[in-house]
C-alpha cells in the first residue's frame, strides 16, 4: 500500500456510522478541539429522506444493544445543504456513509458527493443486517457488494478512499473483502452489527462488546487470507485494550459506535491514548 | 465570563439518598451540570453492567451545599437498571452526562401558567415553577399520581405556586381522578396562557388538548426510553409536525424532550 493511500485512510480511531448523531451532538464531548481532525462516518445517507423505523428502535441485550433504527436521515439534498457544511467547518474528516435501494442510487450518491466540498471519502454500507435496511439494495452474495463498490468507485475520484462496510459473517467475509477490494474499495470496514432479533422477534442488529469476539475473528481471518486489503475494525470497541486488540490483529484503524452511546467521550479518550503509539507498518 | 453551555460527561457522586413513598430521591454532585441546568433538562446516567443509559429528570439544583453544587433526581425502580441506581449508597460514583435536551421555553411576559405533572415525571415542573415565579408569572401547579405513594410533595412548590391542586387516581389524597378528568376545568380556572405538562403520554396529550381548546400554548416534556440520551443514536423517535407543516420524526432526547404540545402527532406516539 502506497503512502498516498494510507495517508488518506482514517485512523487510528474513527466514529462509526449512525453513532455520532449529526456530529453536533458529539462535539461537546470531544475536548477543546471539538471535531477538528476527527475521522467520522456519518449515519447512512440515502437519496431521499427517511423517517426511520418505529420504536422501540434500540433495546439492551447482555453486553450490547439490538437496534433497528431504520436509517433515519434527511436525504442527500438536505445533508449537503446543512449537515455536511457544518461538519466540514468543524474540521471533521467526513466519510459519508451511503446506502441505496439500487445500484443506480449508490452511483448517484457517489457522483453527487464527489462534487461536494469537504468529503474526505465514502463508506458504502453494504453490510446492514438483513431485513433491517428496509428497502436497501439486497447484499446476499459477496459479488453484490462488489458490484456496488464498482459502481461507486466509477463515480468517485480515485485519490479519495472508498470504504466497503461489510457484514461480520466469518463464512463470507474473506470473499467479500477480496471482491470489494478488487472492485476498488480502498479498505474494508469489518463490520456492521450482526443480524439479531428484538425480544418480540423483530429483526435487528446486535452491536457492542458482545459482538467483539465475532468481529475479531473476521478481522483476523481477512488479514491472514488477503493481507493486501486494509481492514478497519468495528464492533464492540469501548476502551484502549479493546481497540489495541484489533490493531494487534492487523487493523489499520478502529471505529467506535455503541461505546459512544454509553460514554460520549470514548472517541476523544481513545484518540489521545492511541495516537502517539500508532505507526502504520505498511508505510515503512 | 460567558455562561457555560452544552452538556458535560462527568463522574458524579451520590451525596444523599432518601426513600419518599414509592420513589427514591438521589442528590448527586456532577461537576458542571447544575451550573448549566435549565428546567426541563435531564441527565443520562450509566448503570453497571448496562450499555444503554438511564435518563432522569433533574428535579432541583442547589448552587451550593456542603458538597458544592448538586442536583436531585427522582427514581422509580422499575427495571434492573433503575433498581441498581436506587440501591447506590452515599459515596457511590456514577457517570453522568448532562444537562441534556431542550428545556421548557419561558414566556417573555408575566403570564398565567398551569403546570400539570404526574408521578415522578412531574419532577422538572418544580424548578420550572421557580423560574416562572421569578418572572412574575402566576403559577398554578397540579400534581397527580395513581396513589399517594407516587405523589411528589408539593410542599416546597407552595412558595412558587399561587395554587396547588393534588389529584390521585384512587382518591387517597386530594381530588379523585386523572389529569384527563380535570384538566379542562383547571385550565379554565387558572385562566392559563401557557400549559406546561410532564408525565406519561396520556397525561401530556390531555393537557395539550385542553390547552388547545382554551386557546393557550402548551409545552410538554415527553418521556420515551432514550438509549443514549445525547442525540447520537436516533433511538428515541418522536413523531411531530414541523414548523413547515410537514410530518417528521425527531429525536425525543435532542429535539425534545420538551416540545410544543400542538406539534406532537399523538396518534403516532
Ligand atoms: C444506533 C445505531 C445506529 C447505526 N446506524 C448505522 C448506519 O446508519 N450505517 C451503518 O453502516 N451502520 C450503522 N450502525 C452500525 C455501527 O456503525 C457499527 O457497525 C456496529 O454498531 C458495530 O460497532 P459497535 O459495536 O462499536 O457499535 C449503527 C449502529 C447502532 C447501534
Key features of this structure:
A: 284 residues, alpha/beta, TIM Barrel, four-stranded antiparallel β-sheet, 9 helices, B: 269 residues, Elongation Factor Tu (Ef-tu), domain 3, six-stranded antiparallel β-barrel, globular, binds flavin mononucleotide
Give the secondary structure arrangement, pairings included.
The complex is a heterodimer of chains A (284) and B (269).
Chain A: H1 3-8, E1 13-15, E2 39-41, E3 58-61, E4 64-67, H2 76-89, E5 93-98, H3 103-114, E6 119-125, H4 142-155, E7 162-166, H5 173-182, E8 187-190, E9 194-197, E10 203-207, H6 212-225, E11 231-234, H7 240-248, E12 253-256, H8 258-262, H9 266-274
Parallel strand pairs in A: 1-2, 1-12, 2-5, 5-6, 6-7, 7-8, 8-11, 11-12
Antiparallel strand pairs in A: 3-4, 4-10, 9-10
Helix pairs in contact in A: 3-4, 4-5
Chain B: E1 8-20, E2 23-29, H1 33-36, E3 42-45, E4 54-62, E5 70-75, H2 80-86, E6 93-100, E7 112-118, H3 125-134, E8 138-145, E9 163-168, E10 175-176, H4 179-190, E11 194-198, H5 201-214, E12 217-221, E13 237-241, E14 247-251, E15 258-260
Parallel strand pairs in B: 7-8, 7-11, 8-9, 9-10, 11-12
Antiparallel strand pairs in B: 1-2, 1-6, 2-5, 3-4, 3-6, 4-5, 12-15, 13-14
Flavin mononucleotide (FMN) binds at residues 16-19, 43-44, 58, 65, 67, 69, 71, 97, 125, 165, 192-193, 207-208, 211, 234-237, 256-259 of chain A.
Amino acid at each position: 500500500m502506497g503512502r498516498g493511500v494510507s495517508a488518506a485512510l482514517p485512523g487510528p480511531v474513527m466514529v462509526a456510522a449512525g453513532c455520532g448523531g449529526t456530529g453536533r451532538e458529539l462535539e461537546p464531548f470531544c475536548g477543546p478541539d471539538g471535531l477538528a481532525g476527527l475521522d467520522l462516518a456519518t449515519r447512512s445517507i440515502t437519496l431521499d429522506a427517511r423517517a426511520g423505523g418505529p420504536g422501540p428502535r434500540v433495546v439492551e441485550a447482555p453486553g450490547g444493544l439490538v437496534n433497528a433504527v431504520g436509517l433515519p436521515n434527511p436525504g442527500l439534498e438536505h445533508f449537503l445543504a446543512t449537515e455536511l457544511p457544518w461538519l466540514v467547518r468543524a474540521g471533521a474528516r467526513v466519510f459519508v456513509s451511503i446506502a441505496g435501494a439500487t445500484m443506480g442510487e449508490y452511483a448517484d450518491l457517489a457522483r453527487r458527493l464527489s462534487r461536494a466540498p469537504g468529503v474526505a471519502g465514502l463508506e458504502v454500507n453494504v453490510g446492514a443486517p438483513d431485513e433491517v435496511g428496509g428497502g436497501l439494495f439486497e447484499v446476499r452474495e459477496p459479488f453484490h457488494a462488489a458490484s456496488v463498490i464498482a459502481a461507486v468507485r466509477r463515480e468517485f475520484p480515485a485519490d479519495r478512499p472508498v470504504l466497503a462496510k461489510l457484514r461480520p459473517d466469518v463464512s463470507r467475509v474473506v470473499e467479500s473483502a477480496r471482491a470489494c477490494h478488487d472492485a476498488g474499495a480502498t479498505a474494508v470496514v469489518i463490520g456492521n452489527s450482526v443480524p439479531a432479533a428484538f425480544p418480540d422477534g423483530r429483526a435487528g442488529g446486535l452491536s457492542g462488546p458482545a459482538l467483539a469476539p465475532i468481529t475479531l475473528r473476521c478481522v483476523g481471518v481477512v488479514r491472514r487470507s488477503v493481507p493486501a486489503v486494509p481492514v478497519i475494525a468495528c464492533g464492540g470497541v469501548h476502551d484502549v485494550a479493546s481497540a489495541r486488540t484489533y490493531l494487534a490483529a492487523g487493523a489499520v484503524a478502529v471505529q467506535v459506535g455503541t461505546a459512544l452511546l454509553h460514554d460520549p467521550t470514548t472517541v476523544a479518550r481513545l484518540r489521545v491514548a492511541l495516537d502517539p503509539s500508532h505507526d502504520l507498518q505498511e508505510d515503512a | 465570563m460567558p455562561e457555560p453551555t452544552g452538556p458535560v460527561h462527568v463522574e458524579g457522586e451520590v451525596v444523599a439518598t432518601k426513600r419518599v413513598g414509592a420513589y427514591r430521591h438521589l442528590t448527586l454532585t456532577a461537576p458542571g451540570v447544575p451550573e448549566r441546568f435549565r428546567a426541563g433538562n435531564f441527565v443520562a446516567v450509566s448503570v453497571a453492567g448496562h450499555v444503554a443509559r438511564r435518563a432522569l429528570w433533574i428535579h432541583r439544583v442547589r448552587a451550593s451545599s456542603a458538597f458544592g453544587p448538586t442536583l436531585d433526581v427522582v427514581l422509580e425502580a422499575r427495571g434492573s437498571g433503575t433498581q441498581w441506581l436506587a440501591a447506590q449508597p452515599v459515596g457511590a460514583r456514577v457517570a453522568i452526562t448532562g444537562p441534556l435536551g431542550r428545556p421548557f421555553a419561558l414566556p417573555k411576559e408575566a403570564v398565567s401558567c398551569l403546570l400539570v405533572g404526574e408521578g415522578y415525571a412531574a419532577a422538572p415542573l418544580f424548578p420550572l415553577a421557580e423560574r416562572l415565579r421569578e418572572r412574575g408569572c402566576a403559577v398554578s401547579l397540579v400534581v397527580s399520581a395513581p396513589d399517594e405513594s407516587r405523589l411528589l410533595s408539593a410542599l416546597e412548590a407552595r412558595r412558587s405556586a399561587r395554587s396547588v391542586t393534588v389529584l390521585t387516581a384512587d382518591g387517597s389524597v386530594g381530588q379523585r381522578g386523572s389529569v384527563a378528568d380535570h384538566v379542562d376545568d383547571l385550565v379554565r380556572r387558572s385562566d392559563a396562557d401557557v400549559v406546561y405538562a410532564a408525565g406519561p403520554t396520556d397525561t401530556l396529550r390531555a393537557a395539550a388538548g385542553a390547552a388547545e381548546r382554551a386557546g393557550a400554548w402548551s409545552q410538554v416534556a415527553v418521556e420515551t426510553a432514550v438509549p443514549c440520551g445525547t442525540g447520537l443514536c436516533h433511538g428515541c423517535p418522536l413523531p411531530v409536525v414541523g414548523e413547515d407543516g410537514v410530518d417528521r420524526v425527531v429525536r425525543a432526547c435532542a429535539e425534545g424532550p420538551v416540545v410544543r404540545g400542538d406539534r406532537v402527532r399523538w396518534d403516532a406516539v
